[in-house]
């Protein structure tokens, strides 16, 4: 009987180690499929219009930098800011702000005729806040134009001047209808980047694919460029009115309607302050996973405890193997530990985070499990509401 128990336990440990390695290898494969940001689009006689929509609620601390970055885009500059038909136009939606967000937006509109401000009182019943704000922005832009693109940018995001041109060029070469890039860390970023980003990218990537394959397509709400024709084809944001993980939802809808979606590595040209300080990064991920699971308490608990258990199983095996002098157990644990470390190093590099914590990846991965458990606690408390930030990252 004892021998049988040992066999079962050994098989279980081997399965855990194999699962950890497989999970890490899959993460590496998906990370490699993220499209690098390319060059500017090929020259055309009439470059397409790009309408930038910025949803903003109580963003007075960051909105000015965001709008300056958009206004300084090199794309469309050949027509000048005073053109009757600018290639680049901007719609800022002041979504019921109680701070100076609306005033800051109005100041930019007074300085630049390409900028328009819409003051909204917030979402009606049945709509999530950010989705309604983006819907309002597109509606304010007017009827679709031939070849038009929509660029959705979070208010806590800053674009480098070349970003839009390069993003359009990347979409052109990939023949994509939607491309999206996360923002990179600002200067003096908090510990949320090296601690949370690698595990966060892995967990989101397990449920959504950078190439738009599988069950869900991967997109990041910081910066999403979408052909307006495909936006209209899916029914726009109105078709996703109640969704809170709106970035993945719209990418998946575009893919399901025949479009091509790609996740792009544009972090050298996009920065976000939405993940700093550490608590803000923690809360952003928490809201993302609550939204992604539709607030399912069993799923959040299962994922949270599963993440912690799977992450710590490898170092536990190493410790147990050393204590009992079983080289095989040490080898199993070391394999899982090494796989997590390699995966952490790669995903940290993708997110422009310091990969120095890769050797302790099992423990940082376990910390991330606490985010999901915190989400379960908030679901019980009923404290899940949109605060104007991106739902993912």
UniProtKB/TrEMBL annotation:
Glycosyltransferase 2-like domain sequence ranges: 51-235
InterPro entries recorded: Glyco_trans_2-like (IPR001173), Nucleotide-diphossugar_trans (IPR029044)
Superkingdom: Bacteria
Gene Ontology MF terms in the entry: transferase activity
Gene3D superfamilies (UniProt xref): Spore Coat Polysaccharide Biosynthesis Protein SpsA, Chain A
Keywords, comma-separated and alphabetical: Transferase
Record's protein name: GT2 family glycosyltransferase
